[in-house]
């Protein structure tokens, strides 16, 4: 088989929206590519026989992400049984001590998307994802993870995953989105407590006046220790880190759009010392504010995002 060719196996009825696509690529030999093994969209009816035992499968090693669209399935991992209802996914390794199946007594179809890929080059990321969200995790039905799974299936169904490089790109994008969705930083945006959300907004409105984090904790009605811990858990960074990020984003706008002196920019965003502002700016951006403004030796930006 020539480089770039692929073998794509299909289990699908032309009239059905459901199907399973498998991929075996010969292209990309010698390259560090991520290997897509299969992607599918299935509907398991109460009368169907559906059960997979992770220790009995012979197609591993594989990593499996399976997301429920409607209905519910069940999974047992090392003796722990969990439901996998709509809006939830399970993540397992094959081979592994698990079994997933259509639950006895179920009354409606279990509809889901799944993706199988080889673990090569991905285990560190996968373990990080599992450490954050466990074997079964909730993902917003309107969020990026379900959307990427649906997109991946649609691309497979329309024969657009035609070589190892495209397949690798899809796998990488999905795994990165899983990392993002399972991170505390992302979770913060979707489920932050009211007080912490209000505190973050207060920082964005008063960044130029804040003298210490004690002020923000007081605004939130929390002790400083509890506030810092809750803010870090919810937002994914400390309050000081968040405040610095907000200040530098504003500083970059002022450097780009005004002729204010660097010392005046420092004052405008809440720094009492111009030299300290220059030090912080250099550490975060990679060069001093004056050099950023001149744009002679680096790429200029309309906006610079920090995390």
UniProtKB/TrEMBL annotation:
Q: Which domain of life is it from?
A: Bacteria
Write out the entry's keywords from A to Z: DNA-binding, Transcription, Transcription regulation
Q: Please list which residues make up the signal peptide.
A: none
The record ties this protein, via InterPro entries, to: AraC-bd, AraC_XylS_family_regulators, Homeodomain-like_sf, HTH-like, HTH_AraC, Tscrpt_reg_AraC-type_HTH
> Does the record's keyword annotation contain Zinc?
no
Q: Which SUPFAM superfamilies match?
A: Homeodomain-like, Regulatory protein AraC
Q: Which residues cross the membrane?
A: none
Which protein is depicted? AraC family transcriptional regulator
Species lineage: Bacteria, Bacillati, Bacillota, Bacilli, Bacillales
